[in-house]
Amino acid sequence: CQKYLALLESERNYDAKMSLSAILNRDFDWWESRISDAFNPIRQQEYALEIFSDTSLTGWGAACNGETTYGAWDELERKKHINYLELVAAFYALQCFAARRYDCEILLRIDNTTAVAYINQMGGIQYPHLNGITRKIWQWCKQRSLWITASYISSQENAEADQGSRIINVDTEWELAHWAFQAVIRRFGVPKIDLFATRNNKKCEKFCSWHRDPEAVCVDAFTIKWTKLKFYAFPPFALILRILRKIQIDQAQGVLIENPPSVSGKNDVSGRDIVRQNFRRLEDWAKFSVVRNFDMFAPQISQIVEWLTVIYKAGASYGTLNTGRSALSWICGDRVGKIPIISRFLKSVFNKKPTKAKYERIYDLEPVLKELEKLYPLEDFSLQDLTDKLVVLLAIVTAHRKQTLSLIKISNIREISNGYEIEIPDRIKTTRPGSCQPSLTLPTFRGNPKLCVATTLKRYLAVTKNLRESIDSLFITTRKPFKAAAKDTISRWIRAFLGKCGIGESYGPHSIRHAATSAAFKKVVNIAVIKRLAGWSEKSTVFDRFYNRPIVKENSTFAEAILA
C-alpha cells in the first residue's frame, strides 16, 4: 500500500526513494527471522468447515453445519461501508465457528466480491481500512494454523446468514446505564464476568452470551459452574428464579440486577402476565413445601403430585394446574413437564374437568349500538362521552384486545380517502417471529353517521389536540393531568359503558371481542376475514373454540357488517 502511494507521489518513478512507516517493522522482523526456512505448503482444498456469512446495515449473520448465529452493529459500525462490514462479518463468523479449530482449511462463503478478493489476496492497497481488517483476520488464522479460502455465493443461496443479519432482537440488548453500573461497582466491587450479555452491551471483559458470539468466553451461562466466579448479571425478569436456583446450587457470589417490567419492555404485557400467574402458583408451592418440610427447589415426584392433588381438590381447574406445572419448571428444571405420572395426572384432570370457554353465550350488540347512536352529534358531548364512544366503536369494528387499543399512536394513524388506517408496530400478545403486525382499517360508515368510527376518531383528535401536548398515544385520560391511558383504564371505560347498556356484570370488557366476532360471523362475513382482523392465524381454532358463541337474541367489510 505504501509502495503504491509512493509511486503515485513520484509519478511512477521506480528510481525514487520512499520512507517506510514504522508499522512495517513487525513484518520485516518476521521475514528476517523466517526467510531461511519459509515455505508455502500445497493446499489440498479439503475443508474442515464451510462457513456462510452476510451483513446488513443493522447487523451480521453467520451459518455453519445447520447452526445460525447473529448480532447487531453498534452505532459506530452502522456508519461503516458495507464492504468493511462484510469483512467484519466474515471475521465474526470465523471466531464463532472456528475458534477451536487448528491446522486445517476453512471455506468462507460470502456474497460480496470485494470481501472475497481482499481475503484471498490477504489484503489490498486501495483501501487501508479494508486492508486493516483483512490483516486481523489472517493474523487470527495464523495463530491457529488455519488456511482460509473465500468463495462468492449469491444472496439467494446465502439465505440463512442473510436472515440472521436482519434479526433485530432488542430484548437481548438492554443494559444498565454507565453511571448506574459505576454505582454498582463502587458498592460491590468490580465483577470478573458478565453472565448475560453480547459484545455490544458487555460490562466485563469476559462475558457469556445467549448464542455464539465472537468475543464470548462461553455460550449459555447456565452450562458453566458459577462457584468461583465473581459475576455480574442483568438478565430478563423471567430468568430470576432460575438464576437464584443456580446461585444456591453452585454457592456462587455476585451482583444480580433485577430487570423490572419498566426496563424489560413496557409492551411485553403478555409476558408479564405469565410471570405474574407463575408467581402466584410458586407462592402456593413455597407454603406447601414449608408445611411438608422439604426443599421446594428439589422435590420428589410424589411431593409434586401431592401438591397438584391438594389444589385440585380445592377447586383448581386444569388451566390452574397446568400453570402450576409450568411454574415448577422454572425452579426445578424442564423435567417437571416431562414426568409421565404428572402428565397422566393432568390428562385425567382435563377429562374430568374439561377447559370451558369463558362465555357459553354472548349478548347481542344491538343495545350497545343503540347507546352509541345516542352520542350524536359529537359536538354536543363531553370528552368522557366522546372517549367512551370511540373506544367502544374501535373495540367493535377492529375486534382487537384492549392492549392493542392502548398501543395506538397518533404518529401511526394515516388518513385515507375512505377513512383511516392504523399501524401497530409494538409487540402485542399475538406477536410471533415472522408474523405480521396488526393494521387496523376504520372505514367511513355513510350508512349510519351516528356509528361512524372514522368520524368519531377525527372529532376525538380535534378535541384532544390541545390537551395532549407531546403525548403520542391516541387515548388520553379524561381528567387533568392528562396522560396516556393505560390498558386497565381503557378496560374500565368499556366495562362502564357496557353497564349503561344493561349488559350484566358477568360480561367483562373482553366480551365485546366475543360479541363482535360472533356478530360478524352470523352476518356471513368470511371466516378468513374475521381471523385476519382479530389477529388469529389462518389455521387458528381459537375463534371456533372460544369466540364463536350463540347470540342471546336471535356482505361487506367486517365493520360495516356489524354496524349495519
Automatic annotation (TrEMBL):
Transmembrane segments: none annotated. GO terms for biological process: DNA integration; DNA recombination. Residues 352-560 form the Tyr recombinase domain. The keyword Thylakoid does not apply. InterPro entries: DNA_brk_join_enz, Integrase-like_cat_sf, Integrase_catalytic. It holds the Pfam family Phage_integrase. It comes from Temnothorax curvispinosus. Signal peptide: none annotated. One of its GO terms (molecular function) is DNA binding. PROSITE patterns: TYR_RECOMBINASE. Gene3D superfamilies: Intergrase catalytic core. This is Uncharacterized protein LOC112454508. Keywords: DNA recombination.
